[in-house]
Amino acid sequence: MKDKSMQFNTKTIHGGQKPDDAYGSVMPPIYQTSTYAQSTPGGHKGYEYSRSANPTRTALENSLASIENGNYGLAFASGLAAIDAVIKLLQPGDEVISTNDLYGGSYRLFTKIFENFGVKFHFVGMSETEKISEHINEKTRLIWVETPTNPMMNIIDIRKVAEIARDHNLLLAVDNTFATPYLQQPLDLGADLVMHSATKYLGGHSDVVLGALVVKDKELADKLYFIQNASGAVAGPMDSFLVLRGIKTLHIRMQRHSENGRAVAEYLAQHPAIEKVYWPGFEDHPNHDIARSQMKDFGGMISFVTKDNDFQKAIRIVESLKVFTLAESLGGVESLAGHPASMTHASIPKEVREKSGVVDSLIRLSVGIEDERDLIADLEQAIG
Ligand SMILES: *Cc1c(COP(=O)(O)O)cnc(C)c1O
After folding, report:
1. Which residues span the domain enclosing 202?
2. What pLDDT digit, counting tens, does each position of 342-369 carry?
3. Cα separation of 326 and 239, whole Å?
4. pTM, entire model
5. Residues at CB less than 6 angstroms from ligand 1
6. Which of 18, 60, 122, 312 could bridge to 240 as Cys pair (CB 3.0-4.6 Å)?
7. CATH number of the domain to which 61 belongs
């Protein structure tokens, strides 16, 4: 069966995959090797050195391309290594327009590393897409979108941003870590490039750190492949295997994450001690209609603030949780809770983070796939 005609729930299992040539193993072997025997100088079977390519990584890269409806996948040592490769497409003097409430590590990479090399970043609240155009000039090369945003769960209209990018001949990259291709397929909405921290939902089991890029265009893929090989932050074979295994259950995990996400969001919304719940599935979420139009469901990422907005009380809540684990990261089968102001977003200055809503009492949940009754009972005892 041709890949392009498969449904998503089949692609996660079969997309870009075939049994291994050597013995027909259904899962690709973990080719734990750095190099490959050659019969004569240059005479090899497509692999010569594992930074350049490795068969287990290739199997994952083909799967990534398939599930994101792209033509080329590239797997990196981490999500940030994947972002690093994208920004290396640029030259000193070039400018990037980026989502303002984005992953803290992306913000740090942009401002603390690449600004030193002369790349300029504008951080813009992109829920109002017209704000993007105000920052476009002849030096602009790239628009960097994260949607839903982290941790405020704003939704950015990918189709509209893609129109702006096309009109100005800019590259549009979407960090699709939160949504995953189960919920949202940015390349189909007009983006040029999709990025993932596969550490999160794609891997899905909190046992691996890995990053990914997927593109449609051959020329862009070639440039990124050159950077991947030249800079060297590639995914290892064992890690590639783990993510490939994770992807096979992505669709059923995301379905349950979304169901549990709804149950938890609705519970929190009616709780008297909770001021506000940020979850795009609510009809009164400011970008709910866009979320509906570009996402299949709303996922398991939820943020909320308490009525008193008390820093210490928020810390007490996350410390009292028993089923939810207090930890960085997200997207695993187990539920996690985090306190962005002191954890993931501590590297963003207080004035900057508060402007985008990351206040002292904000708590972010990655709702896992446990029984929703246990998750709600846990929140009940922790919030009081
Ligand atoms: C975790 C994360 C990253 C960074 O990925 P790593 O695999 O940790 O390097 C980038 N973007 C988002 C949205 C993330 O959640």
Report:
1. 3-247
2. 887 787 788 888 887 899 999 999 999 9
3. 24
4. 0.96
5. 78-80, 103, 105-106, 146, 150, 175, 177-178, 197, 199-200, 209, 211
6. 60
7. 3.40.640.10
